[in-house]
Amino acid sequence: MQIGLVGLQFSGKTTLFNTLSKSEPSQAQKEETAIEVVKIPDERLDRCSAIFNPKKQVNATIEVFDIPGLRMSEDNKVKITSTFLNSVRNNDALFYIIRAFKDESVPHPMNTVNPFRDIEFLETEFLLSDLAFLESRLEKIKKDILKSKDDRLKREMPVIEKCFAHCEKELPIRTLELDEAEIKLLSGYQLLTLKPLAIAINFDEESIPTVEAEIKELSSKLSKLNAAVIPFFAKIELELSKLSDEDLAAFMQDYGIKESALSKILKTCYEILGLQSFFTVGEDECRAWTIKKKYSAQQAAGVIHTDFFNKFIRAEVVHYEDFIAHGSFNKCKEAGTWRLEGKEYIVKDGDILNIRHS
Ligand SMILES: Nc1nc2c(ncn2[C@@H]2O[C@H](COP(=O)(O)OP(=O)(O)OP(=O)(O)O)[C@@H](O)[C@H]2O)c(=O)[nH]1
Ligand SMILES: [Mg+2]
To answer: Are residues 189 and 165 in the same domain?
Structure first.
């Protein structure tokens, strides 16, 4: 799963990226997209590890792409480029990184700090790009539909028309109701406004007292985008990421912070991608596995190993919450929360599975 950090120049993307990857900024990173595999924090998995004390713990991961932001061009305007659009298109989900911090020493490519305007700018450009694609696709379909033998074009045409009409109303395709077959027909086109979206607003320390109100206002103004809007503090997070685990815990306790913004951001990515985790636990390894929502037990088994998919017999299932409540698998058996489920069972976020296979 790939997620792209998208925004204007100097909005804090690389600062966030470096925090995620715990790396120092490098010059090369400025011009090209940088990629990092980032662990998804999961306190449930940490707790399982504390119980089983395994040789290794494996968290779920996502790939984060740090895409260079849009700059002011020679005529003092910010213009979208095809390189930029192509880098954005490659991702499964988008994370807009939007500047709200004020700092005279960091120029803004549009001269003033205005998060709402920057978000609208990106959305409008992406809508225009989708509209242009849909329009040309429609023309091509109309031209080819009579000579084509297979019925794909016939099925595709109404879907493209529907998307086009939706975009014309200035609405992103992610807010259009599409069934699975329709989504499948569109899947190769990498439509930008169909991609799941989260928006992170990068504030400075001084705005902490007003952040909540500002996020609330932005969220309501942006409700038609169907995106999560979350605050973060790139500068503070970068400083925090340099602390040792103990110092960080102490800091968070002092300030009454339960969860770092970073961990929230990563979980949001996971959420908007429609993903969930199940666990496998034991003395060798405690591991979080990533699956889509509504995966069956057999599909989940296939994520561990294709053999497990092919030779699936049953899944032993206990939900994490039950496991913690009862303290052991045996106790769960006594309480009836340990079950054997067949291949059609729909796996829930937080299930602990053991796959029986032949
Ligand atoms: N004061 C302040 N400065 C910040 C904050 N976040 C980032 N900066 C500074 O802004 C400058 C640009 O930050 P980057 O993270 O490199 O911005 P970017 O979005 O990666 O920029 P491009 O890659 O050019 O698109 C750096 O000098 C950062 O130190 C913040 O929250 N507060
Ligand atoms: Mg950068």
So the answer is: yes
